[in-house]
């Protein structure tokens, strides 16, 4: 009888714990650096989309219905942007929140704060503090997960490419140190179920390989490959940037290992996208075209495709990642369990986010022409775009791995671990061109 009573007590205890767990919504603090950028805005939008009641009714090509995961609970999303962008981004995200059909139990808040990537981590620490304060004042549960998506970095030519590269590396180190400092000071305040704080680092294929670098397996690049060839060169900003992405990931990983503390400190997921294309982030319907143009996120790829559309430069063959897939990978990477992982460590995982083959410039050009045809059939503003002006670079053969051959191994790992299936290059390019033409960018 005593044994039976004990079994009943244990069962009731487990049931009560389950009911309490279900009754207590999950709570999270999510910080996104570079949140006003091309990738950053898409990541924030995908984070918000988890709280939607249903998939978007809009058929806009910038709406990524595949990221709608239907989450509930409390989440504060802190967007870190340049100081001169704070006011605009606040209006932008407030408008989105008013228009999104969020679930009844969703408690989501978007904060926009200034960010300086070279302030020794002070602005990131302040963002974590702000999220922590919001959690303490709005949530009954003490349990809270914390994730930082570090996306901010400088890409493109500058007056001092070597210093710019070093700044990119320094900013990644500052992020990890600030997270560690916050974790040390507030670990007693936040019960994260013994889970470490998570860093999702936007790395790059540039961290996987340098131009013309031979893959380790001699055939194609995998997440095990590292760029070992790019150097700091004041006459080559591209080489400096590639070096900075590899070094940033290495330094961040070293610090995360140092601060992991047996699984209760920090852990990290590095995402290595290839060249990021895709439509601009969606704008709230309350924003007019002028608002969109003045407040659009900057992106080298957006400018590049505009040049291709208007025949100002040759269409190129590039290894491609769709920005919507990159954003979806970020959201998934913030929550996956990385404690037991093949060749990765117990505190880190690494993913290439990319299609596996380059598409020829001719096929990219065909996708752009289809976009022009589609838009011109319904939009008079795009009539001045002459598809006959589109020209192709037919000289480039792909480099170390030829166009049309498998260049990276990514598909199976992305789908099995993160649930991400990369769009085709044709769809990405066509969607991107249609969005640019329709919105008047």
From TrEMBL:
Coiled-coil intervals: none
InterPro entries xrefs: NAD(P)-bd_dom_sf (IPR036291), NAD(P)_dehydrat-like (IPR050425)
Signal peptide: 1-21
GO molecular function: oxidoreductase activity, acting on the CH-OH group of donors, NAD or NADP as acceptor
Keywords recorded for this protein, A-Z: Oxidoreductase, Signal
Protein name per Swiss-Prot or TrEMBL: NAD-dependent epimerase/dehydratase domain-containing protein
UniProt organism field: Thalassiosira pseudonana
Origin organism lineage: Eukaryota, Sar, Stramenopiles, Ochrophyta, Bacillariophyta
């Amino acid at each position: 009888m005593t044994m039976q009573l004990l079994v009943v007590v244990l069962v009731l205890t487990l049931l009560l714990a389950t009911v309490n767990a279900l009754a207590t919504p999950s709570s999270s603090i999510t910080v996104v650096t570079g949140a006003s950028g091309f990738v950053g805005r898409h990541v924030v939008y995908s984070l918000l989309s988890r709280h939607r009641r249903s998939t978007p009714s809009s058929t806009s090509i910038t709406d990524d219905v595949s990221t709608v995961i239907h989450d509930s609970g409390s989440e504060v999303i802190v967007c870190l942007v340049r100081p001169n962008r704070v006011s605009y981004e606040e209006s932008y995200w407030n408008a989105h929140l008013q228009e999104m059909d969020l679930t009844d139990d969703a408690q989501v808040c978007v904060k926009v704060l200034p960010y300086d990537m070279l302030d020794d981590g002070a602005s990131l620490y302040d963002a974590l503090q702000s999220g922590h304060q919001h959690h303490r004042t709005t949530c009954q549960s003490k349990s809270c997960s914390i994730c930082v998506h570090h996306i901010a970095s400088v890409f493109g030519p500058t007056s001092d490419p070597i210093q710019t590269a070093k700044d990119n590396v320094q900013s990644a180190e500052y992020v990890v140190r600030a997270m560690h400092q916050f974790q040390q000071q507030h670990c007693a305040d936040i019960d994260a179920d013994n889970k470490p704080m998570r860093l999702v680092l936007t790395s790059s294929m540039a961290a996987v390989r340098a131009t013309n670098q031979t893959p380790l397996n001699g055939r194609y690049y995998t997440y095990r490959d590292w760029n070992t060839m790019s150097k700091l060169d004041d006459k080559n900003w591209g080489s400096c940037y590639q070096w900075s992405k590899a070094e940033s990931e290495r330094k961040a990983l070293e610090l995360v290992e140092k601060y992991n503390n047996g699984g209760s400190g920090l852990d990290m997921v590095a995402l290595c996208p290839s060249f990021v294309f895709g439509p601009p982030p969606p704008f709230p319907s309350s924003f007019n075209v002028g608002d969109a143009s003045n407040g659009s996120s900057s992106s080298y790829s957006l400018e590049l495709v505009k040049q291709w559309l208007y025949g100002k430069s040759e269409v190129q063959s590039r290894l491609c990642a769709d920005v919507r897939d990159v954003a979806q990978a970020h959201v998934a990477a913030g929550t996956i369990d990385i404690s037991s992982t093949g060749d990765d460590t117990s505190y880190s995982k690494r993913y290439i986010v990319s299609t596996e083959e380059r598409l020829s410039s001719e096929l990219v050009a065909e996708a752009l022409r289809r976009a022009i045809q589609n838009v011109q059939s319904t939009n008079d503003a795009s009539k001045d775009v002459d598809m006959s002006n589109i020209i192709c670079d037919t000289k480039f053969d792909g480099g170390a791995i030829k166009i049309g051959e498998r260049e990276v191994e990514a598909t199976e790992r992305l789908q099995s671990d993160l649930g991400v299936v990369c769009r085709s290059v044709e769809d990405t390019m066509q969607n991107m061109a249609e969005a640019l033409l329709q919105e008047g960018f």
